[in-house]
Design goal:
four-stranded parallel β-sheet; eight-stranded mixed β-sheet; globular; Rossmann fold; 8 helices; L-asparaginase_N; about 350 residues; 20 strands; 2 domains; alpha/beta
Length: about 350
Amino acid sequence: MKRKVLLIYTGGTIGMEKDYETGSLRAFDFGNIFQKLPEMKLIECEVSVHPFKKPLDSSDMGPQEWKIIANYIGKNYDHYDGFLILHGTDTMSYTASALSFMLKNLRKPVVLTGSQLPIGDLRTDAKENLLTSLYYASLYENNEAVIQEVTIYFEYKLLRGNRTLKYSAEYFDAYQTPNYPVLGQSGVHLNIEKDFLWRSETEENFSVDDHISTDVLFWRIFPGMHLEHLLQMPKMKVLILQVFGSGTIFNTEKTQQTLQLLRDRGTEIVVVSQCVSGGISFGKYSNSNIFTKIGAISGHDMTAESAITKAMHLLDNPKFEGNFAEIFSRNICGEVSVN
C-alpha cells in the first residue's frame, strides 16, 4: 500500500528561486513543487502539500509557529502515515527540539529538512534532502513506522532532532549530533540504526501539548564578564547558563553571591556547556561546585537549543507534576543521556 505523507512547507532556502531581474532570492509557489521536482511522483507514497500562507525566514520562526505546526500535525495525525516539514536551516534545531517535546507519544515519523542552496540552483542540495526525507517519512515495516520521533535529515544523515545543532553555514553537511549516534544514512541503500531509535515507553495515545512559556533567558558567560548585570534585569523564571567545559565558572565570592541572589528570587538555573561535544559534570572541577551549592540543574549533554525549548515547554506546564528541577532532569524523549 502507498503511504501518505503530509508535507508542510514553512519557508526557507529550499523553497526559494532566483529572480533573474534583481538577482535576489524569492519564494516560489510551493503548490507547484511537483513541477519543480517531478521525481517526487516516482516515490512510492502519496504526498499532500500544505504551505504556510506566508513563507517565513527561519529567523522568524518561534513559539507561535511551533504551536501551529504541532497542532496541524495533531489535526491530521490519523490521516497520514508520516510528516515532512520543510524549514529554513538557521533555527531548524530549535523547531525540531520544540516539536519533540510537544508531540507526545509519537508513533509516526516527523522529519524536518531544508537546504543550503535553493531548489532551482544547479548545485542544490535541496532535491536529495527532500526526496530522501520523503522516503524516511514513509518508511514502514510490518505495518509499523520505523521512525517514531522527530528527526532532521540533511546531507545523507538522519539525526535525532533534539540532539542536533547547526555547525556550518557554508557546507552542505550542516548538522551534527555530537552527543548521539546518527540514526540512519542514505547511500545505495537507506540504512537505519534501529538500536538508536527512540520508542515511547508508555501505552498512551498520541497527543499534542503545545504549552510554551517564553519566561526563559539564555546567557553565555565569558572571561571578565560582570555577572551581576543579571540582577539588573527583570526577574526571570528560568536562566539557562552556558558555562565553560564540563561545568566551570569564575570562582569568586561575587559570582556565588549573584547566583544565590537569583536563586533566592525564585529563578531556576540550568547549566549547559559551551563545548560542542561532552556535557556538564558537577564536581569534576572545584569551580563547578558553586552550582551544587546554589541548587542549579545540570543540563548534562543537552544542546543549548534542546535545553531552551525543553525549559520553555516544562515551565508552568500544568500537565507535569513535581517541581521544575525534577521534571527537567528527566529524559523525556531522548534529548539527554541520563535516565
